[in-house]
Amino acid sequence: MTWLAWRQLRAQLLVTGVAVAVLAVYLVVLGTQIRGGHHDAVASCGDACGSALREFQSRFQGQLYLLDALLLVTPTLLGMFWGAPLVARELETGTHRLVWNQSVSRRRWLVVRLAVVTAAAAALTGLFSLLLTWAASPYDAVAADRFTALLFGARNLVPVAYTCCGVVLGALAGLVLRRTVPAMAVTALLFAAIQVAVPIVVRPHLGTPVHSSRAMSAEAIRNLSFLGAKADVEGLSAPNVWVVSNSKLLTADGRTVDLDRYHGCLSGQFDVMAQCVAALDLHVDVAYHPGGRYWRFQWLESLLFLTAALALTGVALWRIRVA
Amino acid sequence: MVTSGTTPALATEGLTRRYGRRVALADCTLRIPPGRVVGLVGPNGAGKSTLLQLACGLLAPTSGKVSVLGARPGTRLARVGFVAQDTPVYAALSVADHLRLGARLNPAWDAAFAARRVAALGLDPRQRAGRLSGGQRAQLALTVAAAKRPELLILDEPVAALDPLAREGFLRTLVESVAELGATAVLSSHLLSDVERVCDHLVVLTGGRVRLAGDVTALLDAHHRATAPPPPGADVVHGAIVRGPLPAGTGAGPVQLEELVLAYLRGEGDPR
Fold it and tell me: Residue ranges of the ABC transporter domain (chain B) (predicted)?
């Protein structure tokens, strides 16, 4: 049975394998360039490394964001193109009536095919993630943002777990819908929804956040991404930590800043405004996960997705018996 | 003793299958003895495919019972061979790949038999199955199903899509294979002419019901064609075809299989 599973995967594996090989070469080249760029930036800057490192970051940011995005959609793509047709294609072409009448039970057939396809998909994703993590590591060390919602899913272990879950989800969708194209669509929609929902709804609760307060100095205000009319702020960050949530701008006694005084600052040049707001002596309460939790979160989320993959496999095995 | 000669190859009891509201097979009770070549005949939509898919476990019954070689369908995978309608094969796999598939997936695979059949058919082992003609594809599907050495070989409309020459070739190889395997074979067709040359047992199905079932010779013995209008009290199937002996003195001759089946299809006589 393993032979048949490999034989049926061969063509897809060849095509995807070539694509991943090209990508791997690109990542090795990029990783070397990033290392070179980092070395140059640090070697020449002496005491004032800030601007040199910012230049280094902006030089590679675009390429790395594209690669992050590609790695984030890889589990969905594999779920669509490897998972969804796994059963649906057989049902569409009628070959299930050939293969399910050999001396191998349907369940064993499904288990072996799922195992082979998932293992191959996980290996390819793992290689991609490994190379991207390696290539981006000097950049990540400078940016110190690998724990943030977007990047967390594009480094180290979790992409492999996503892929396992995506492939099994695709196969189950194909088994239930019995048609390849609708199964691909449903897989894409469901898995995209899962990838959006998990960082927002599930991941923050994989540990209890730490609470602290952050003084809003002019420097801190300049680094924000958003400063709202109702004293709400966004874009608080700190090296290596993951900020889960934060309060509005608060005064020393813990109440929201007086909006009239606050609005008085919101005009003119940004630097002037930042100093004006800073003079109000404000702070925000912040809930965050410290950087030391990064690997615990990687393992927990991987475990979560692998458990989901096993549960979906169970559903598929139950379902194929009554199909 | 599931292998004993008395266990029916296929037995059903009140077997019913619905698709939503449509009844595809209604209260079908049947007993097919082993060692026969069985023709399952009926018009399109009569429930033939449904019955055969129930027998190999691809469908589950709505109600009633079905047993294959004395066991639940789908539990004796190694002992039942199935050639599905339109004889599906993997278009991307070669003829040799299909034989390897059979070898890897069936413990009792007879590689010599399969190789002999492929050679006799003149199939190129490197040819992709998607490039085969309809007749060659059907032959390949039959080879895969037969080389696992089943005790029961089920074929669902295997020749429907074939031209007359390919039909003849397929049926001849089928008979040879069944004889070599010592197996029971059940093949369905909407045309009696496809099966009458090869089968020695007949089941006629219309509207989801069994109209007629039995060994061909026994069926021919049990029916007559009245040469004069049949007398009152005669058990008329349809037209001149009469069930049972006629009263002495009334004219009667032997019946042909084709007119007998037609009489049951037209008369929709009492289920037997």
Answer: 10-232
